[in-house]
Design a protein that fits this description.
The protein is of the alpha/beta class. It is built from 14 helices and 12 strands. Helix content is 38%, strand content 20%. Bound molecules: adenosine-5'-triphosphate and the ligand CC(=O)N[C@H]1[C@@H]2OC[C@@H](O2)[C@@H](O)[C@@H]1O[C@H](C)C(=O)O. This is Anhydro-N-acetylmuramic acid kinase.
């Protein structure tokens, strides 16, 4: 058996998630979470990343120094987070076989074979501080093979969640939202996946703007629950050029970050739209763009034909699964758009999903577990991408390996 620490820092910039798992060396779905640990970024680090990705106040000459410096600093923070998670799990670092670290995306500009993407968090620092073999930079090999380097989790969704009898959409609502489509009894060539647009990113930015930074997000969807849809803003948001791109597609802050949100919010504000209605509209837009995108995938000719009696399970994870208003809107969209099918919405934020035949991985743990398993696939020299999802020309073994030091030096 292998003990692996998976580390994820997502586009929301909320911090570091570490999952320590036990699994075998095979492509199996046998995963036990030994411990899970979340740590917020120190405010100073969050501010530095935020400045960098939003191009704020950075003297051009300083940009490279800041990239190099944050790469090292994040490596230190990731190593520290693994150390804390291991001791919480009652493990010595030397008992870990492997670390898989996604890093912090600071730039991602998709564009087919012209995609550029950068994740920071040095594997050398992590391996040096922990002594554990460390895999980082999971996206670049896929990009080298002509893909967009994202999303990568669909491969792990395939390994963990495919079912012989249910059709499944797995939807992760982080900063960006993305889905994996697993038709019943699928093989890996049948899997489809794509980013759908913003997850919490525009809602967070809208709340931050309208509260002058006093709140970072719409806790439990409380603000959105009080507002009403503003149709003009809603229609305007759907005119974003992202929605004209072909599937599969990936996105990021470059498309839906603070600058874009600020522009949209200011336009609505100038028309006298109330704060709560703006947040409501951003939430409705997020829900609709998400459900519309997997409806479009289902309608595409490559998809298998579903029988009306088939059950469609929609499994939701990520921080957005805690936003009750967003989930209600997604449920409403699903029942309207998929009224011909039996649908079941399963939120991994609900503690009680045990009646379903799915692994016990909670909403906030799923991506960290996925990067632990992607590290396993890498070290075992197995495929780490799905060309049908990323657009790569071929499957690749993903990730850069930095060995931990167990050699005898003379
Ligand atoms: N109780 C809550 N109510 C509403 N929203 C919440 C709640 N808890 C978390 N969130 C949202 O979830 C976000 C964090 O989600 P998550 O950690 O899944 O994103 P991420 O991993 O950073 O992003 P990505 O998956 O795109 O890389 C927060 O920024 C916030 O918007
Ligand atoms: C470039 C990048 O960091 N993309 C993230 C982001 O966050 C969600 C979505 O956009 C997805 O494409 C991806 O992350 C997940 C973990 C993935 O690769 O599956």
């Amino acid at each position: 058996m292998l003990k692996i620490a998976g580390i994820m820092s997502g586009t929301s910039l909320d911090g570091i998630d570490v999952a320590i798992i036990e699994t075998d060396r095979f492509e199996s779905s046998k995963v036990e979470i030994i411990d899970y640990f979340q740590k917020e970024y120190p405010a100073e680090i969050r501010e530095r990343i935020d400045k960098m990705i939003n191009n704020r106040h950075l003297d051009a000459g300083m940009v490279l120094e800041e990239v190099a410096s944050l790469n090292l600093k994040l490596g230190e923070l990731y190593a520290e987070a693994v150390r804390t998670a291991s001791s919480k799990a009652g493990l010595q670092l030397s008992e870990l076989d492997l670390i898989g670290c996604h890093g912090q995306t600071v730039f991602h500009k998709p564009g087919g074979s012209k995609t550029v993407s950068l994740q920071l968090g040095s594997g050398s620092v992590i391996a040096e501080r922990t002594g554990v073999d460390t895999i980082t930079n999971f996206r670049l090999k896929d990009i080298a093979a002509g893909g967009e380097g994202a999303p990568l989790v669909p491969l792990i969704d395939f390994l963990l969640y495919r079912s012989s009898h249910s059709h499944r959409f797995l939807v992760n609502i982080g900063g960006i939202a993305n889905y994996t489509w697993l038709p019943a009894d699928c093989n890996r060539r049948d899997v489809r996946g794509s980013d759908t647009g913003p997850g919490n990113m525009m809602i967070d930015a809208g709340v931050q703007l309208l509260t002058d930074g006093k709140s970072n997000y719409d806790k439990d969807g409380a603000i959105a629950s009080q507002g009403e849809l503003d149709q003009i803003l809603y229609d305007r948001l759907f005119k974003h050029e992202f929605f004209d791109r072909a599937y599969p597609r990936s996105t990021g802050r470059y498309d839906f970050g603070r600058q874009y949100t600020e522009k949209m919010v200011k336009e609505a504000y100038a028309r006298g739209v109330k704060d709560i209605d703006i947040i409501r509209t951003l939430t409705e837009f997020t829900a609709s763009s998400l459900v519309e995108s997997f409806q479009e995938e289902l309608a595409s000719e490559e998809m298998i034909t579903l029988k009306k009696s088939d059950c469609l399970e929609v499994i939701i994870s990520g921080g957005g699964s805690h936003n009750t208003t967003l989930l209600e809107l997604i449920e409403k969209e699903i029942s309207e758009r998929f009224h011909n099918y039996r649908t079941d919405l399963i939120s991994l934020a609900d503690k009680d999903y045990s009646q379903y035949d799915i692994p016990a991985i909670d909403a906030d743990q799923k991506e960290a577990v996925a990067f632990a398993l992607l590290a396993r696939e890498s070290i075992m020299k197995r495929q780490g991408n799905l060309p049908s999802v990323t657009g790569a020309k071929n499957p690749v073994i993903t990730g850069d390996l930095t060995p931990g030091d167990t050699a005898d030096f003379e």
